[in-house]
Design a protein that fits this description.
106 residues, mainly beta, 2 helices, globular, three-stranded antiparallel β-sheet
């Protein structure tokens, strides 16, 4: 089974600093403790700021789009974001859905 690693965090570690967000490049798909290669990933990023402003952006692939990176870099303590509608597609075309992951900026 697969799990996703974002900013080197395990799925249970849901607090993230603005410094960690500034260095984000991609999401790693992990299997058996190693990065799974040749796997496709699609997801929606939902950003909810403490001001009430929210935005949803689609991403196709493990590399995070520049648009999403820019939005994540704007976040401040208390803001939240989540990865939703996560679909992991194996080489053989088999698609696995993955539960929502929500992070809070510390």
């Amino acid at each position: 089974s697969y799990y996703l690693s974002f900013a080197g965090k395990s799925p249970e570690d849901t607090l993230i600093s603005t410094k960690e967000l500034a260095m984000i490049k991609n999401i790693k798909i992990m299997a058996d403790g190693k990065e799974a290669k040749d796997i496709k990933l699609k997801f929606t990023t939902t950003i909810i700021k403490t001001s009430g402003e929210s935005v949803q952006l689609e991403n196709d692939g493990t590399d995070i789009s520049s648009e999403i990176k820019d939005k994540l870099k704007e976040l401040q303590a208390g803001d939240k974001f989540s990865f939703e509608n996560i679909r992991i597609i194996a080489k053989d075309g088999q698609e696995t859905t993955y539960p929502v992951i929500t992070y809070e900026v510390k």
